[in-house]
Fold each of these.
Amino acid sequence: MHTHGDAYLSPNSGFGDHTPSNAIGALFREHGEHYIEAYKPDKLQIKLLRAIRVCRTPTLGGTLIRCIKCDHQRFQYLSCGHSQCPICQGIKRVQWEDRLSGRMLKVPYCHVTFTLPHEINGMARRNPHAVYNLLMRSAWKTIKKLISDKDEAGGLPGMSCVLHTWGSDLKYHVHVHCLVTFGGLATQGKKEWVWPKRRNKLASYRRMSGNFRACFLRDLEAVMNHKAFVYHRSFEDVRNEMMRKRWVVHNTQLVTDSRILEEYLSRYICRIGISNSRIQYDKIQHTVRIQYNNYRNQMPGQAAPKAILELDPLLAIHRLMQHVLPLYFQRSQHYGLHAGSTYRKYRPLIPSLVKQNGHSIRTLFQILRLLLGIAPDECPICQGTNFEYSKVSADTTYIRKHILHNRSPTQTAARA
């Protein structure tokens, strides 16, 4: 029999006898149906919500693994497999990071962040696919224009970018993180790697900010004229307001070892907003605690201090659900020398000193060892390597016991 177990759920506390510790899943199981009734989410959000609440639970079945040497047993439940699930996408995240490493050239890299002004948030909420695509294309056009300019470098760069729609506290904050080569392949004359005039950045802040704003607003007019675009203001009103603002473009120091940046970009490539380690759910008080970076109190040259945000369960779920991507939208994009077709075209012309090395993809066992911190093919008790595997059938009563009983009175009466 599966029971709820401890009332206070954090990443280190159990949830039932055989259900893995999971504060996000517990929150969605307890309040998911209430949220659907109160907030009326769309089909994509409902699909993700109902996938998260059964991810790695007896609902999906799994495998019972028994060590033959010491008789130690553990349950391994199946994952939901949803591309935006914050619980089960660890393997895909590491695989994406490996593929990104294979695109990197042996040159310094800049981490550049392009942020949309918050005045455009309403437009982005109503037209996410169009605005998100426009943001990523505008970021690339800005980088390409600056580095291809002879006054800066005069070459074709490479760029990989990942879209984020959240801040550390899960508020709606649309921005794109970009890994950009420092310099590019010369497009005229001798095919060699050309470096920017500045030693530590691609271009001045004012120039990057002004070009980003110009690229976005220039293409926004055509996007807003599309009949599927929904917004209550005219392009002229939006342009006049946005031209008075300085758009934020954050450019960090150069790095020669890009592995830390690759890991940072991959952290949320296959999930939304938050990891299970930053959220705690108190079932008795019905509160959710989220750990976030308090940038308002950050001291120069130091990491942002941590702070705790307490939210109502329905509001916490809503803050997560507002970051669900549109159908078929790709959170990551590769441009210039990082794009496969462009790299193949220019590969014979790229100097051998900056060519990417052949990168080996980690095996599944290597990834599991990294994620779990243990050898997946060894018993954690006796280090034995011989196991007996038994299939665990899906528990069809789990949803009724742990989810359906949490329906609101209105839902229950409607079903009756």
Note: Residues 1-20, 408-416 have pLDDT under 50 and may be disordered.
Amino acid sequence: MLQTLSRLAGLAGLARRGAPWVLALGLLATAGVQAHRPSLPEPGWQKIDNPGPVTVDGRTYTATCSGYPGTDARFAFWVREGRSRNTMVFFEGGGACWDGLTCSFPIAGLPPAVPQFFVPQVAPGTDPATFDGIFRTDRADNPVRDWTMVYIPYCTGDLHAGSATRTYTSVGNPALGLPAGAPLTIEHRGFDNFMVVLDWMRRHLDRPQRLLVTGASAGGYGASLNFPWLARAFPQAQMFVLADASQGVSTANWDRFGRSNWNLQFAPRAFGPDPAAVPSPDLLRVAARSHPRAKVAQFTTTFDAVQIGFYGVMRQFYGPGGDCPNLAVDWYRQMTAKLVEYDQRVPNFRYYLAAGQYHTLLRSPLFFEEASAGVPFNRWLAQMLANRGGTSGQGGRWESVACPNCLVALPCPTP
């Protein structure tokens, strides 16, 4: 089994600035806002380290990372005050775990042959000031260069949306000294961490005029699942949502037996009375339709190797998958079908489909360089944030775009 996982792990890697290439997931109304914020202590990025518990709507939330053995469970986040009245909230990516197998193998800089599924702690040395892409505040062609930025790290394996403590049975990880059969307790508290950050934002930041909620890989799911809570907290803001490399191609059995371990905290007004019944590929569509005045978008490459690799794990252990035995074609067919469906059925949704196999671009120089769909991605995003086509997102110069021949119906290869 571990040999099979090693082969799947070899399908793809996630580029984390300052870290090795490793396998990672591309899955997947509180009290009144203060009118004015207290001044942040000094300019630049500020680290809010080990924030205390908060109580929201009668429930207490305590920030923590996964608690994987030998890791640092302390949580932190970063804030940079901008010159405009606009705010970007960025959810970090970094894999996922949902059972005794995937939670036994954290991303820990191990050899490529060792499967690695999720980031278990805030990465040492994290500093958004060193990030590329959308964090380059020195570039005039960055449409959010003067926005206030909130950077939410990811260390809970639950797409920033879980609220559960789970004890799994480890399959063993000799590289980290984890014995097989040992109990392995993981804090899936990504939603709790988000609520701590949101409470801080409400207390310390001005109410934004425009609010971009975004993230890459697993963080794209954090943006998709959590933007309704931000819309509730800041109802005056024009809302924009961008999910980078987070298409949600999964299997029905993974939705039922995998993600259910996280106790995902769906906003009821966005996802309805039974959000657990919403398939993963439809989560962003449902949330977008419930917020018709928001502009909502997805970015992906045509054959994102990381997303395909994780879909392979789901298909093998939580199958069946689609109707094509070829893993990459199966993923591509489902991904493109959903993009077209969203575009046709959801008036405030757009997509950018790029050529290639790479995973995520928001923290990469590709944020400025990607143009395979006929328009530079950063310009496409600027058109979105300029509210081209009206509040509802219809018409105007902001449209769905795809690289040439990237939406063709691929036949399933014969074995």
Note: The longest strand covers residues 210-216.
